[in-house]
Amino acid sequence: MSSSTHEGEAPIRQLARRNDFEAIFHSSPDSILLVGGDGRIHDANPRAEAMFGWLRDEMVGQPVDLLVPQALRDAHRRHRSLYGSNPVSRPMGLGMELEAVRKDGVAFPVEISLGPSRDRSGNLLVVCVVRDLTQSQVLRRVAAARVLAIESERKRIAGELHDEVKQGLTATQLHLAALVQMEVAPKDAAEMVLGVQRDLDRCQDALDRAIRDLIPVELERRGLGFALRILCRRAGDDGFFVEPDIRSTDGALSAEARLAVFRIVQEAINNAKRHSGAGSATVRYWREGQVVRVVVADSGGGFSPDALDPQRSVGLASMRERSRIVGGRLTVSSSPGNGTSVTLEMPITFPKRQEDDPQ
Question: How would you classify the pairing of strands 241-246 and 41-44?
Fold first, then answer.
């Protein structure tokens, strides 16, 4: 404690200007430290103990640099000296994300606000409010991954529409223009009309696929089990065989959970087609007690999670975000040469009447 502290009186009481200030200090969701002009900690609230892993009595009297990563302490001392020469309030929300360190040596991102005050002897006493940004950073990364996944899907659909629909319509226009202007012999006109029909058929198929990707009609009309079987069957249109093993019924999941399962399986199959190097995969969907499980597995080349391709990680981040939103848990098991398995566990939190889905 500082020599300016009145015996038997906690430093927080010296700063109290309202009767409830001490209550705010102890109940604050953020860490609050009182730091003297000498850079030593005079007091710390319970949240600071939980955040940093030090007991209050262990922190009091120690340099505040104790809570700064070793590599940043020299710079922190310089900043603290500059602040002491001109102490002003610095609120949070200024984009100044810093790092603190716990007792166990683990660093974590924080945002800090500073407010200068004086103790009863007139000595500088800085109120430091520290907010842990770990969860905020995780949420931002998830949100960013979700945006990238959406943009990636839009790019894929736009590419399909451009390559098949737009080019098919362009070819159709050229053929029709030639027919109208009679630039072809009558004997070739019939074949040209057939070509136009084939182009339009391809355009229609491409549009149907795009619409199915955007709106899973089978899921809405026939249920999750049926939609998963159709999803597996359509993967074969591109020469990638997916064997379904569907054993559950739709009544166990909410509409939101069913959509999440469908999208996660869809993304997992697409990842297997693009990245595994295998020609096939399996999709298993079953219920165990109060948990629904889905596993999409392939026997392809696999990958090392520590050296994950950024494009693949966008899809995985999207799947994890979808599972988190509906209370599920997604795990990915893979290693080079041993294939990949994506497992989704979904608790049954919205029980409904059990109904067998159409076969």
Answer: unpaired
Pairing of strands 241-246, 280-288: parallel
Lowest mean pLDDT among 54-58, 96-100, 219-223, 263-267: 96-100
Q: Is pLDDT at 143 greater than 70 in this prediction?
A: no
Residue type (1 letter), 342: V
What's the pLDDT at 172?
81
Does residue 67 have a pLDDT over 90?
Answer: yes
Neighbours of 188 (CB within 10 A): 13
Runs of H (alpha helix) within 250-336: 255-271, 310-325
Coil/strand/helix, residue 45: coil
pLDDT in tens, 3-51: 444 444 555 555 545 556 677 888 888 999 999 989 999 999 999 999 9
Instruction: Give the side-chain half-sphere CA count within 13 A for 272.
Output: 33
Asked if residues 31 and 11 have their Cβ atoms less than 8 Å apart, the reply is no
CA atoms in the 13 A half-sphere facing the CB of 107:
11
CB atoms within 10 A of CB 131: 18
> What is the CA 249 to chain-centroid distance, rounded?
29
Question: Which two tokens mark 246?
Answer: 């569907």
What is the Cα 90 distance to its own chain's centre?
A: 31
Residue 2, pLDDT > 70, answer: no
> Model pTM greater than 0.70?
no
What are the residue ranges of helices labelled H in 181-241? 186-214, 217-222, 224-235
Do 350 and 327 contact (CB within 8 A), yes or no? no
What's phi and psi for 109, nearest 5 deg? -75, 140
Q: Comparing C-alpha atoms, which of 42, 41, 20, 15 is closest to residue 118? A: 15
Measured CA to CA, the distance from residue 215 to residue 62 in angstroms comes to 60
In 3-state terms, what secondary structure has residue 174?
A: helix
